[in-house]
Design a protein that fits this description.
103 residues; alpha+beta; four-stranded antiparallel beta sheet; 47% strand; 25% helix; elongated; Alpha-Beta Plaits
Length: 103
């Protein structure tokens, strides 16, 4: 697997989970002899929702909610077969979405 790259993109609502998962991926890749670039923090996506608290009247009574999606990007350069196997067996936190692209 010479001159190849694995691009890993992580998404989560909790930044602590995503940082912990990124740390585990970096440690696993370095332990198997691959070079890691990242994790690079990408912009946070803010989604805001406004909900009327009253079921009938009182337009002034509202609640506002916010959902933040944190993202991280990392590249693993020149991965070995051992690196790919270790990454496949890695067990990450439940709240983290992982996207892997080979390139």
């Amino acid at each position: 697997m010479d001159n190849q790259r694995i691009r890993i993109r992580l998404k989560a609502f909790d930044y602590r989970l995503i940082d912990q998962s990124a740390k585990e991926i970096v440690e696993t890749a370095k332990r198997t002899g691959a070079q890691v670039k990242g994790p690079i923090p990408l912009p946070i996506k803010h989604e805001r929702f406004t909900v009327l608290t009253s079921p009938h009247v009182n337009k002034d009574a509202r609640d506002q909610y916010e959902l933040r999606t944190h993202k991280r990007l990392m590249d693993i350069v020149n991965p070995t077969d051992k690196t790919v196997d270790a990454l496949m067996k890695l067990d990450l936190a439940a709240g983290v979405d992982v996207q892997i692209k080979l390139g």
